[in-house]
Design brief:
This protein is an alpha+beta fold. It has a domain of 92 residues. Helices cover 60% and strands 17% of the residues. The chain has a six-stranded antiparallel sheet. A hairpin with a 5-residue loop joins β2 and β3.
Length: 362
């Protein structure tokens, strides 16, 4: 078997070195650009010292760099194959009867292993660092965190008093409460009973503590209260989760987050899509290897290598755009999250295999 032979181990090392080298280069460039941007923003915040900016940049980079795994595999695979072709090592391999499908086995193995490690190890670490980066950024750039452009947050809760819909403009700094709250309360029979507006709502065990509340009911005159208690079955973790983007949730924590979000009566489409996209990543990286191989196996002496490389970059970019478009359709609920996550990777791998079949077997 090629994978266990000396030549197979050599190919595995070449592909791994090229892919990780490309990823490391992108990682460094992203970190440098992000640090420069944060230093520009630091001029408006007296709390933003250089060590804290460096720490914030290091926390933010892994999550951003996670998005370039497909391109790292594409460019790294193309570089490795073109290098092997330029050194005539692929010519020698073909002269002894080895097909492209055989010497692509190490590349597919490397891509699959990198994909698995990226979701099992890299993603949880990047998600945790992103959460820390968000907290640190909120502390350093308070005005940016309190931007009025942020969308309202909606919650739904059920209790013995009936169902209530909660709208809030944002969360409190500790994450256990909401600001600028409006609660629409419905009776157990489904009829509207009252509306409560409050400056803020702090979640305790079994109830909301509302500050500067105004209660408007269908039976009584409007009443103002300095403090007003409102029963709830929500947990602090469920409230925090409503402000947490899917990218800040690690792979291992995602099933529990989806379950808590469902119990809170919130839409879980974005989290389900993110979870399925992570599981589809190894197949997407293998598809990138097939795309790279379909444009990188031409011998240098035949010419036209530059045109093929440009075609490979364009094909990889189209596949990436198709993946993003599919995820947008999935997050909006137009397409099932499972279909939206797996379809681009499946079609990309099939098209890459078809191109190789046409190239190798006519």
């Amino acid at each position: 078997m090629l994978l266990t032979s000396t030549f197979g181990r050599y190919l595995t090392k070449q592909f791994a070195r090229s892919i990780l080298g490309v990823f490391g280069t992108f990682f460094f460039l992203i970190g440098t650009l992000d640090f420069v941007e944060l230093m520009r923003r630091a001029g408006d915040s007296p709390l933003a010292t250089t060590p804290l900016i460096v720490q914030l940049a290091l926390f933010r980079v892994p999550s951003v760099a996670e998005q370039i795994f497909p391109f790292a595999v594409l460019f790294g695979g193309m570089f490795a194959l073109l290098t092997l072709s330029r050194k005539l090592e692929l010519v020698v391999a073909r002269s002894v009867g080895m097909s492209a499908w055989q010497f692509l086995q190490p590349a597919a193995l490397v891509a699959g292993v990198i994909g698995l490690l990226s979701i099992l190890v890299y993603n949880p670490v990047a998600a945790e660092l992103k959460s820390r980066a968000t907290a640190l950024e909120t502390r350093l750039f308070v005005r940016a965190a309190q931007s009025n452009n942020a969308p309202d947050v909606w919650l739904r809760q059920r209790s013995m008093d009936g169902q209530a819909i909660i709208r809030a403009a944002g969360s409190l700094p500790d994450g256990d409460g909401l600001s600028q709250v409006a609660i629409f309360n419905f009776s157990p029979g489904g009829g509207f009973s009252e509306r409560i507006d409050a400056k803020q709502a702090v979640l305790h065990h079994g109830y909301w503590e509302l500050t500067d509340a105004r209660v408007i009911s269908t039976t009584d005159e409007p009443q103002n209260y300095g403090t007003y208690l409102f029963a709830t079955t929500l947990e602090p973790e469920q409230v925090r989760q409503s402000f947490t983007p899917p990218e800040a949730v690690g792979f291992w924590s995602m099933p529990a987050v989806i379950d808590r979000t469902q119990r809170a009566g919130l839409d879980t489409t974005r989290y389900e899509l993110r979870y399925q996209s992570l599981m589809a990543r190894p197949l997407l990286l293998v598809a990138m290897v097939l795309v790279a191989a379909s444009v990188s196996l031409r011998f240098f002496r035949f010419g036209g290598v530059t045109r093929l490389v440009i075609g490979g970059v364009a094909a990889g970019f189209v596949l990436y755009v198709a993946t993003q478009l599919s995820e947008e359709l999935g997050s909006s609920g137009i397409v099932n999250p499972v279909v939206a996550a797996w379809l681009p990777a499946t079609i990309g791998s099939m098209l890459g295999a078809l191109a190789l079949l046409h190239q190798e077997d006519g």
